[in-house]
Amino acid sequence: MCLLSGGIDSATCLALARRDGFACYCLSFDYGQRHAIELQAARRVAESLGAQQHRIATIDLRLFGGSALTAEIAVPKQRPESEMSRGIPVTYVPARNTIFLSFALAYAEVLGAADVFIGVNAIDYSGYPDCRPEFIRAFESLANLATKAGVEGKMRFTIHTPLIDLSKAEIVRTAAELGVDLSLTHSCYDPTPEGRPCGECDSCVLRLKGFEAAGIPDPALA
Fold this sequence. Notes:
The chain has about 220 residues and is mainly alpha-helical. Helix content is about 40%, strand content about 10%.
């Protein structure tokens, strides 16, 4: 069971799960984000990497807002790296990974799947608290306390985070080695009406930095 956003990290995470022999069921979210382009990317990635199934759950986090991705708040642009690594940015969506992992856990329990993959990264992660190893450990503990399968001892849930200690450059290189078609992915928080990346938001800047450090051209900019 793999969470799939359509970005580089989740695509690489899915490819790693496939490489390791897992039959992958993918879950994406239409959560009221600024655009649906990432969902189109997720569909392309799931198909390209041979997912057994790809489902999109619809929830509306605009009900709460509180983020530049779910409310009428401007997406920060052209921030220096030093500023990105200081504090939690306004693009943080309150409790998003907790919500997403809860849905993934429910789906995994129904599937009888003990392994949940998520492409969180604690190196180039823009300060999001729900991308840290301690959060993942806490959720894994919760997963085994809060499910029928866990309590009855039928399954021991494991939350896999194969990218957690990798830099963006290392993730790009890993994706290239696994043959991931990164032209299918999308990372931008605030794309143009034509779906082109803005090139200025934190996510675009981190993506560009990763490709440059890896010495690989970004196919999405071709």
